[in-house]
């Protein structure tokens, strides 16, 4: 028994997956195709996708936002959890990676729920704010370039309704947030953001040791 988070051995992680993961065939195929890419580590862990899908259902979210699509696994997990008339606005800059994403969104029958915007995400988010979309989203997932995380977070917070949730990926950054390499600028950005979130009284907060660290920030 332990009242601190367990260190996951390979065997325990396998057990966790074997006893909780419920991936569809399409999700498995998307993960397999992505695993062959040089940037495969940019894909979220499958149990993380399932957890975010559960959050989306728990909240009854209808309008979701994603910053950083890559090959579309997290968007697929979230879109599947949205109701039929729900919508996920997904931001990315890569045509190559999102072409893979679209193929699997089609195969899963959720493509009609996903509005993919191929442009720098700050431009897309700022356009949403100019269009008066403040407070109109229920859920946001940020998993993109780390130097812009704070800027994405600030915009996502404005776009969420009170009680809306923003999830930020990689907030433990492979453990390097506690042992920063001076050459690792991303570790510095994430440390600064984690410090800010800890003090941020606009949100309720939880930093989960799930995958590479997942921060949940619930807008007050
Ligand atoms: Ca990530």
Describe this structure in words.
The protein has 220 residues and is of the alpha/beta class. The chain has one domain (10-219): Rossmann fold (3-Layer(aba) Sandwich), CATH 3.40.50. The chain has helices at residues 10-18, 25-35, 46-59, 73-81, 95-108, 121-130, 149-159, 185-199, and strands spanning 63-67, 87-92, 114-118, 137-142, 160-169, 203-208, 214-219. The radius of gyration is 17 Å and the shape is globular. It starts with 9 loop residues before the first helix and ends with a strand. The structure holds calcium ion.
Tell me what portion of residues adopts beta-strand conformation: 15-25%
Tell me, what is the CATH class? Alpha Beta
Q: CATH superfamily, please?
A: Vaccinia Virus protein VP39
Q: Which spans of ≥5 residues are poorly predicted at pLDDT below 50? A: none
- Main beta-sheet annotation: 7 strands, mixed
Straight-line distance between termini: 34 Å
Distinct helical segment count: 8
Task: Return Rg in Å.
Answer: 17 Å
How are the elements arranged and paired?
Blueprint: H1 10-18, H2 25-35, H3 46-59, E1 63-67, H4 73-81, E2 87-92, H5 95-108, E3 114-118, H6 121-130, E4 137-142, H7 149-159, E5 160-169, H8 185-199, E6 203-208, E7 214-219
Helix pairs in contact: 2-5, 3-4, 4-5, 6-7
């Amino acid at each position: 028994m332990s009242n601190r988070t367990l260190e996951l051995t390979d065997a325990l992680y396998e057990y966790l997956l074997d006893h909780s993961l419920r991936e569809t065939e399409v999700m498995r195929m998307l993960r397999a195709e992505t695993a062959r890419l040089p940037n495969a580590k940019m894909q979220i862990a499958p149990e993380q996708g399932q957890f975010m899908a559960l959050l989306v259902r728990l909240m009854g979210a209808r309008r979701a936002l994603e910053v950083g699509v890559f090959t579309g696994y997290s968007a697929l997990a979230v879109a599947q959890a949205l109701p039929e008339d729900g919508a996920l606005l997904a931001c990315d800059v890569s045509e190559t990676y999102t072409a893979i994403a679209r193929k699997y969104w089609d195969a899963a029958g959720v493509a009609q729920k996903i509005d993919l915007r191929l442009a720098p995400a700050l431009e897309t988010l700022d356009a949403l704010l100019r269009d008066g979309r403040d407070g109109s989203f229920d859920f946001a997932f940020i998993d993109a370039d780390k130097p812009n995380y704070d800027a994405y977070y600030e915009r996502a917070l404005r776009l969420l309704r009170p009680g809306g949730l923003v999830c930020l990926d990689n907030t433990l950054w492979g453990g390097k947030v506690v042992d920063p390499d001076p050459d690792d600028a991303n570790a510095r950005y994430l440390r600064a953001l984690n410090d800010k979130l800890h003090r941020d009284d606009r949100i309720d907060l939880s930093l989960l040791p799930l995958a590479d660290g997942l921060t949940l920030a619930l807008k007050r």
